[in-house]
Amino acid sequence: MAKDLTESSHDRQNILNNRYALQQAEQHLGLGGVMFEGETVFTKAQVIALYEVTERTVERYLASHGDELKSNGYKILRGAKLKEFKALDYGTDMNDGTKTSVLGVFSFRAVLNLGMLLTESEPARQLRSRLLDIVLDVMAERVGGQTKFINQRDENYLVSALQEENYRRQFTDALDKYVEGNHWKYARFTNLIYQSIFHENAAEYKKVLKLAEKTNIRQTLYSEVLKLIASYESGIAHELEQVSTSNGRKLTQKEAESLFASFEKHPLFKPLILDARTKMASRDLCFRDALHEKLEAYIQSVTEADFERFLGEKSRSLEEQLSDPETLAVLKRLKDR
Question: For the chain, what is the largest distance between any 2 Cα atoms, rounded to a whole number of angstroms?
Answer without folding.
Answer: 88
